[in-house]
Amino acid sequence: MRTGTGRLRLGACLSLSGRHARFGTQARLGLEIWQSSNDATELVIEDDQSRPEVLEAAMRRLAPRCDLMLGPYSTHLTRRAGQVAASLDRLIWNHGGSGDDVEAAHPGHVVSVPTPASRYAAPFIRHLYGAAEPLHLWIIQGKGSFGRQVAAGAETTARSRGIHTVRLGPGEPLPSAPPAAWALFCAGSFEEDVETINRARALPGPPRTVCAVAAGVREFGAAIDDPHGIYGVGQWFPGSGHGAELGPAEPDFLAAYEDRAGVLPDYPAAQAAATAAIATHCARLTGGTTREALWRTASELETTTLFGSFKIDPGTGVQVGHRATLVRWGTDGPAAVRSPRA
Predict the structure, then answer these.
(1) Is residue 38 predicted with pLDDT exceeding 80?
(2) Cα angle vertex 93, ends 88, 37, to 5°?
(3) Nearest to residue 111, comparing CAs of 301, 242, 284?
(4) What's the pTM?
(5) Side-chain-side CA neighbours of residue 103 (13 Å)
(6) What is the pLDDT of residues 127-180, one digit of tens each?
(7) Beta-bridge partner residues of 68
């Protein structure tokens, strides 16, 4: 419901504590920066403690009080959020759950902004193929469904390019006698990816090229010895060069974030701010906040934010416009790689 001042009230459950806190707190700051220039919007945030049952209780408290609802960070929490949204007949704007199954699970109730997990590895595979890098790729997946979906997408994309692949599960031994030139792609939790890369680098014949989901965030640089040359994939990275038709421009957002946090943001902050901008834009276009009207408006919208392109499949709510970003760690830290889009 709108506040007494006529402002839209936007509710969000974010992991401000627990296992996802490093990313949930970034999302909160991204939303606060976005909201600071939006006087027509009030922001209400609750801590889901990285726990599905806490998330559900918080969503049920927020739903009667808020016009718009943003989902949580992480695929497994967004899975529960979609179930709750469907049970309440509400729409959630998904900024933090990229699992393919999660994005498609509740048509009409979930609008997704991030690239689905199965397309996460695409920019690295394009780079690997286009740069004539090793055509033998070991893919290591993590324990959860997110890792499985990222790994499956990497395998399918690599094979379509003629790249030989070997896919391993969590903790499986790395090749004892790999080809002279091989590449490694890790798709697990932050901790899993760091552990896998350390194991691979200790081999007698380490991989020539390494890419990991974990390397798509700045914290990776402090978690591993000498990240130089390692590639990362993520939903977004500063310097990706996206123009913004909606929401803050990238330079303004980066300056505001660095002023408050002392560091540049990672993708959780940008995707949360972009999702808030899209959700409130749809509410203004719709002239209301009913689930059905917001869904129709979102289904017809094709636009850009600092996060990149936005367009959903009108039948499912799955994101089809946005592309993941490839980064490479250099002497001055990570930087976005402009890889071919084909």
Answers:
(1) yes
(2) 125
(3) 301
(4) 0.89
(5) 25
(6) 999 887 777 999 999 998 889 999 999 999 999 999 999 999 988 888 877 777
(7) 10
| d(C-alpha 179, C-alpha 229), whole Å | 20
Structure tokens at 108: 């009409």
> Where would I find the H helices in the chain?
21-36, 52-62, 75-88, 100-104, 122-130, 145-160, 190-201, 220-223, 250-261, 267-286, 291-300
Residue 9 is predicted with a pLDDT of: 97
Element (H, E) at 69: strand 68-70
Residue recorded with tokens 């390397």: 215
> 3-class DSSP state for residue 9?
strand
- Let me know: does 48 contact 41? Beta carbons within 8 Å: no
Residue 185, classed as helix, strand or coil, is strand
Spatial CA neighbour of 215 closest among 255, 182, 188: 188
pLDDT of residue 5: 54
Phi-psi region of 49 (alpha: psi -120 to 50; beta: other; left: phi over 0): left
